[in-house]
Amino acid sequence: MTKDELLRQLYDYTLVGNGPEVLDLTRAGLAMGLGPEVLLYEALIPSLEEVGARFERGDFFVPEMLIAGKAMAGALEILRPLLAETGVQTIGKIVMGTVKGDVHDIGKNLVNIMFEGAGFEVIDLGVQVAPEKFLDAIREHQPDIVGFSAFLTTTMPMFKANINALEKAGMRDQVIVMVGGAPVTQEYADVVGADGYAADASAAVAAAKELLQRRRAVAHA
Question: Regarding predicted confidence, which is higher, 90 or 197?
Fold first, then answer.
């Protein structure tokens, strides 16, 4: 198999979410001498971007996104330590969690995989994350971004509680706050005072990159 054939197959199998094949091809690519960043940036990430595009067009639904994400997550398990060794620069650090009172994590996990694939370091706090736990994680990890996820309309007010806690601790200006989840809208994000909102995982990555660039441009100005 040539390099191009392997990358094409890795792309195709990631797209359909065939985890075992993705793992085999990832290992085969490494054995062939392809660097982890080649597999990531020339097959896995483009494939996941195509998954996101198909989701936006209505050709793919959440189950397809999830199995593709899961297949890529398997490959990332192998590639992550190798990428660390090659010193591939992470583009930013994000602390992520589902807010207090909410145990939904499918969307959050998918967003995490997309962020990792795009080169972010992700610290996932899990579900039912209280404001204090977010504050502790921000102090410990010094992230660029903190992400609040909510799946229920009843837990969406926790966004405001979390942002209030950040303000009270004098930490609001240290981080970019992003919010998301099925019932969340741009209007709601604006009302609670979040910096960013995205309707789905691929949009979240694009928004995060843009917010980071903007913040860094201001910092260097």
Answer: 197
